Amino acid sequence: xxxxxxxxxxxxxxxxxxxxxxxxxxxxxxxxxxxxxxxxxxxxxxxxxxxxxxxxxxxxxxx
Length: 63
Description:
Layout: E1 7-11, E2 26-27, E3 34-36, E4 47-49
Antiparallel strand pairs: 1-2, 3-4
């Protein structure tokens, strides 16, 4: 499994993401893009990490 550096400024618990740091709950990207799928977002469920990419089976994520 590839060890990735983590960006301690971007906390992340989505282990299925290819950018997850794996060893800790942080993102390995320098920055992320946050967007929405709603015309008028009013709750946290209305926003998305648009930098998300599905990880591969060898990431150790049980995909």
